[in-house]
């Protein structure tokens, strides 16, 4: 890469960059430029490009600093001219902020340094210039603290210890007998700076840098370094942001929100990011610096009067008290509020999307520091897109393309059961920071949250598959920091005692779709004792609480949940998706209950009905075991006759639920050993039931043992060695269809042979199916249309798809097995090496979740083309896990599949992703 320009300046209504240069300037840099261009007041500054970050990791620190120097010095000179001050100058100093800004927003994950340019001499100059010694020294001590933490790596040695600078502050406060930071005098602040610097010298062995440029380069490099810190890496992994993107660095003239009562700082959203309501909303703090708001250290006040009144109602604060003690900005600074309101409207109209903005008021003058498309919950995403469509701000295509398919998932999650909620005891209230319902055990730190969430919950009931669920936890913190990310991801919900709606905890939780209640001031949290006290009651680690992220309520114990209720906006999105999509969406369902759910979500058929689960309940498993343990075909037939009525009843239920839509039923697939008892007790029970010696059972079980069952006696190999199983299943499927026909219910059965690899394997099975059908139709004097097709899940089947399509009427790509066999990775054992492969970037993603388009995908493409060459109307679909994953769905669209099939709860996601795929092609 040969870079000719690394720095882009902005200021005073001019900018070298613009909004569509996000890849190069990062989101923040591109929007700072754009705001300048549209006349929004922004402190002048410059952006160092994301390419330079990549270069930094290739060439190293010294080389990149050398390359950057001339451009950065010229850019600083421009800021100096616009601000009429000088960087590092004692009499008229220019101070700057240095912030990260990647292409995609990563709130709080990387580093920020404010007030840069101060030293022992400059602080005096700043005092003279502002006439405000307290402000100057407070800025200086904040700078030394922030720079020490971020650039010089001053961290506590033990992670449970307190930050070394905070420790010094506490000591000084104690010695002076004061409680609040704001009670410290100028002399105290001077003492803090001296002590901070001594601590730096002691821990790092170096003096705190005095030169403004040395400080600047330290800060710039540390922002680049922060791109690779653990929390940024984790965040990227969660959000699918590639490491190659790099971060930009934004250097801007400082404006101060802490210069007294006419100064302030805040964060605001042009619409409500939690609910999507079209209502300007935000928080601010008078006489504070920006970090105080987002770090959740002080709980801020509301910007609008309406927001303030809503807050007061929740907090139980009277209107009189609210107006005198917690006035909104609309009331306390009406002129500034008016200007801010006009700017937020202008920015939302300009970007045609909900904006998340940061601002500072310095002595009565408003400056915008950032605007970006706001992170939002799934519910807000849907509401905002549909409202903007109705308001004529965006068209249908933009509305659909704006939605993140996976976020629809949040809307489908359970909510609290209304009846259970009436009986629940509210123990405290906080801010409704991110909606949802969460119940779980209290943990007090991120490590415990991550650890507990991996442990089995021995008190919970087994799930439908007989597995023990994992522990559900609620992470309870005084305030959260970006380091808590892994814990937030593992927890059901997050509860904080401090912090507002715009604290990082709230923003990140909304981005993750995690339930979050923040700023619950009534909680007394003691990390050391691992307790939380509310109104005299002590909650310990492991005790249950529940959170209502939609109204901020915190409940004692577990509160029951129920299925979500979908609103008309959601329905409209689905209708719109169907208008543009070219692919159908079916579901994978094995029970009438799942089938019904999928129909509600708009599935237009079943793409995969696995029949093996049906054999596990009650009498069925006994008959199945009898079949497997039988000596010969005759014995098997007798046992299968017992299973037949059960199977037929299962299919009747499923066909009925699908209301005449096509249903693909797959013949038995897994190796038989999965059905027999492996423990002595089970074997004895079986021996008793069958009247044979337990030894006979044991021998048969041993005989069924395979070294590698996934590649063993399964799929079409079963039906070919035990054709009577295929006969029974065919009878059950078509028998069910015939019975429903009599009741006037339409059915469209499609019988699917699993794991075909050789044409003749399929032909043999087809022969059995067709002969059984013929016999059944003759016996009943009635008939039904049905199709016979196959799964394509073995590479050989894909390679010989033209031959297989000469007989098969449809293909369904089983991309779980196809991935397994194409990579040669066991789908059950990939966990042992996948994390390392992802870490080393040998793999970009788990191929069992995201379709490997370059490899496995090419087999899908080729098989579709080869199949259709001999059978032009060959219906092709996908039924592996990838059928509900948006990027894989897009690929299926490009290949020209007729449908994707996925689990019921992913049907809406797949419908939207399919529509987006079609729109992207237009
Ligand atoms: C597949 O292999 O993709 C498939 C759908 O079948 P199963 O997961 O049941 O093996
Ligand atoms: Mg399979």
Structure notes:
This protein is of the alpha/beta class and 922 residues long. Helices cover 46% and strands 17% of the residues. It contains 37 helices and 34 strands. The strands form 7 sheets. Strands 15-25-24-17-18-19-20-16 form an 8-stranded mixed beta sheet. An 8-stranded parallel beta barrel has the order 27-28-29-30-31-32-33-34, surrounded by 6 helices. Strands 2-1-3-8-6-7 form a 6-stranded antiparallel beta sheet, with helices on both faces. Strand 30 (748-753), helix 30 (759-780) and strand 31 form a beta-alpha-beta unit. Helix 5 runs parallel beside helix 7 (186-204) and helix 15 (378-390) runs antiparallel to helix 16. It is elongated. It starts with 6 loop residues before the first strand and ends with a helix. The chain binds phosphoenolpyruvate and magnesium ion. Residues 793, 814, 816-817 line the site of magnesium ion (MG). Residues 608, 610, 669, 793, 814-817, 879-880 line the site of phosphoenolpyruvate (PEP).
């Amino acid at each position: 890469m040969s870079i000719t320009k690394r720095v882009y300046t902005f200021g005073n209504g001019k900018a070298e960059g613009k909004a569509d240069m996000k890849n190069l300037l990062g989101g923040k840099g591109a929007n700072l430029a754009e705001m300048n261009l549209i006349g929004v007041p922004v402190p002048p500054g410059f952006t160092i490009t994301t390419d330079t970050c990549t270069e930094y990791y290739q060439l190293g620190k010294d080389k990149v600093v050398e390359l950057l120097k001339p451009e950065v010095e010229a850019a600083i000179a421009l800021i100096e001219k616009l601000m009429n001050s000088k960087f590092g100058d004692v009499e008229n100093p220019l101070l700057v902020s240095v912030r990260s800004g990647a292409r995609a927003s990563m709130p709080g994950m990387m580093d920020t340094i404010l007030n840069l340019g101060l030293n022992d001499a400059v602080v005096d100059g700043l005092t003279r210039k502002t006439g405000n010694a307290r402000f100057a020294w407070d800025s200086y001590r904040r700078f030394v603290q922030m720079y020490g933490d971020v650039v010089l790596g001053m961290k506590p040695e033990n992670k449970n210890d307190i930050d070394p600078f905070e420790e010094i502050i506490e000591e000084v406060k104690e010695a002076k007998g004061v409680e609040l930071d704001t009670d410290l005098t100028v002399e105290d602040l001077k003492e803090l700076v001296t002590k901070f610097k001594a601590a730096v010298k002691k821990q790092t062995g170096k003096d705190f840098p005095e030169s403004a440029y040395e400080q600047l380069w330290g800060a710039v490099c540390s922002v680049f370094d922060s791109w690779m810190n653990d929390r940024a890496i984790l965040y990227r992994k969660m959000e699918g942001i590639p490491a190659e993107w790099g971060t930009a660095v934004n250097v801007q003239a400082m404006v101060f929100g802490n210069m007294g009562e006419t100064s302030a700082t805040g964060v605001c959203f042009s619409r409500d990011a939690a609910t999507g309501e079209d209502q300007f909303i935000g928080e601010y703090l008078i006489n504070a610096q920006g970090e105080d708001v987002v770090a959740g250290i002080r709980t801020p006040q509301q910007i609008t009067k309406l927001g303030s009144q809503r807050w007061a109602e929740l907090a139980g604060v009277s209107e009189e008290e609210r107006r005198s003690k917690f006035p909104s900005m609309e009331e306390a600074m009406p002129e500034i509020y008016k200007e801010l309101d006009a700017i937020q409207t202008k920015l939302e109209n300009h970007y045609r999307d909900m904006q998340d903005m940061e601002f500072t008021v310095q002595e009565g003058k408003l400056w915008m520091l950032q605007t970006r498309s706001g992170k939002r919950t799934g519910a807000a995403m849907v509401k905002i897109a549909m409202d903007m469509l109705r308001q004529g701000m965006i068209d249908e295509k933009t509305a659909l393309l704006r939605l993140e398919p996976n976020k629809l998932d949040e809307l489908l999650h359970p909510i609290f059961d209304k009846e259970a909620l009436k009986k629940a005891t509210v123990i405290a209230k906080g801010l409704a920071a991110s909606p949802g319902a969460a119940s779980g055990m209290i943990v007090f730190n991120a490590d415990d949250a991550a650890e507990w969430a991996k442990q089995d919950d021995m008190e919970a009931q087994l799930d439908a598959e007989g597995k023990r669920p994992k522990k559900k936890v609620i992470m309870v913190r005084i305030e959260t920091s970006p380091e808590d990310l892994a814990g937030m991801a593992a927890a059901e919900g997050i509860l904080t005692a401090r912090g507002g709606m715009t604290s990082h905890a709230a923003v990140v939780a909304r981005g993750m779709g995690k339930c979050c209640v923040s700023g619950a001031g009534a909680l007394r949290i003691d990390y050391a004792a691992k307790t939380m006290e509310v109104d005299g009651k002590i909650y310990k680690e492991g005790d249950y609480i529940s959170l209502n992220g939609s109204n901020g309520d915190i409940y004692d114990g577990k509160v029951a949940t129920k299925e979500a209720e979908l609103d008309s906006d959601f329905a409209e999105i689905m209708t719109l998706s169907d208008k543009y999509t070219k692919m159908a969406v079916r579901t994978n369902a094995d029970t009438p209950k799942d089938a019904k759910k999928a129909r509600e979500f708009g599935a237009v058929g079943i793409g995969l009905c696995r029949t093996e689960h049906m054999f596990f309940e009650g009498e069925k498993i006994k008959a199945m075991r009898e079949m497997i343990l039988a000596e010969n075909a005759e014995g098997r037939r007798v046992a299968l006759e017992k299973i037949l009525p059960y199977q037929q009843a299962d299919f009747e239920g499923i066909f009925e639920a699908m209301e005449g839509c096509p249903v693909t039923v797959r013949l038995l697939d897994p190796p038989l050993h999965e059905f027999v008892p492996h423990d002595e007790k089970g074997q004895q029970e079986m021996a008793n039931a069958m009247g044979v010696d337990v030894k006979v059972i044991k021998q048969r079980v041993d005989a069924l043992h395979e070294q590698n069952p996934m590649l063993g006696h399964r799929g079409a190999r079963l039906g070919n060695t035990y054709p009577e199983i295929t006969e029974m299943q065919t009878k059950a499927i078509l028998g069910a269809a015939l019975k429903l026909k009599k009741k006037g219910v339409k059915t469209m059965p499609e019988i699917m042979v699993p794991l075909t690899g050789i044409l003749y394997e399929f032909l043999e099975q087809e022969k059995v199916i067709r002969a059984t059908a013929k016999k059944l139709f003759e016996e009943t004097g009635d008939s039904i249309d049905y199709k016979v097709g196959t799964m394509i899940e073995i590479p050989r089947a894909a390679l010989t798809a033209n031959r297989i399509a000469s007989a098969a009427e449809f293909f369904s790509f089983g991309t779980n097995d196809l991935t397994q066999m194409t990579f040669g990775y066991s789908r059950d054992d990939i966990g042992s090496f996948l994390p390392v492969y992802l870490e080393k970037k040998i793999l970009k993603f788990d191929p069992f979740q995201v379709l490997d388009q370059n490899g496995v995908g090419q087999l899908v493409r080729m098989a579709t083309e080869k199949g259709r060459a001999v059978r032009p109307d060959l219906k092709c679909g996908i039924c592996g896990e990838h059928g509900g994953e948006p990027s894989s769905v897009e690929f299926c669209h490009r290949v020209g599949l007729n449908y994707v099939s996925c689990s019921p709860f992913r049907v809406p996601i797949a419908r939207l992703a399919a529509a987006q795929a079609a729109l992207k092609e237009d």
